[in-house]
Amino acid sequence: MSWKLNIKLKTPTEIAMMEASARVLASVFLELRKIVAPGLTTGELDAAAEKMITDAGCIPSFKGYNGFPGSCCISVNEEVVHGIPGARILVDGDIVGVDCGVIKDGWHSDSAETFAIGEVSDEARRLMKVTREGLELGIAQARPGNRISDIGTAVAAHANAAGFSVVESLVGHGIGRRLHEDPQVPNYRSFSTPDPVLEEGLVIAIEPMINAGTKRVVTLPDQWTIVTADRKLSAHYEHTVAVTADGPNVLTRR
Ligand code: MG
Ligand code: MG
Fold this sequence. Notes:
By secondary structure, this protein is an alpha+beta fold. It contains four helices and 15 strands.
């Protein structure tokens, strides 16, 4: 099988530009960590992120993307990704995934983090931990000479060993001048997507979505929100990562 891939490798100067974008995004997440709490609405969380991004002279890349109304996707509990921020009030025990993107000087960064609201269940805490660890194991594979599939293989092995499942219908992606570039970055060993060798200068968004139950997901009638088919919990973490000669450079590291 052959695929036509349009991979745009970045120069060190371009990666430095992306790092500047990513630093703004990392600072947004550090601030969100401080303000997430029971009683806050997802709309208020989104507004806070948007203000920080625009105050930094940057553009919230999700706003208006394919008509998306928010600056962040905010997905609570069984919502996997693409939740629309609004009037929903966060309550003690929720886990809330925030996915956000920044454009600075034309360069994109993309990151996500799942927050615990107050005291969450042991299972929720374990799901979040395993998903974070899976992301780090995937990132560790992002070095020249490895293949895209090494990332997903590492993520899925960790998730499955913990008794959780990996969402397969949504994947990570290349990133740069555009939010979504080639190649796709599955969080499992995919045999139906291209599997290029990782080269220095490749920048990718690695973003495992791990479910407590079934890997199957469905889209709600709002046409955006993706939820687990069995309505069990899901967690999502994402970093924008540059493949360099020295190994992975996590541009959105907090
Ligand atoms: Mg994202
Ligand atoms: Mg992404």
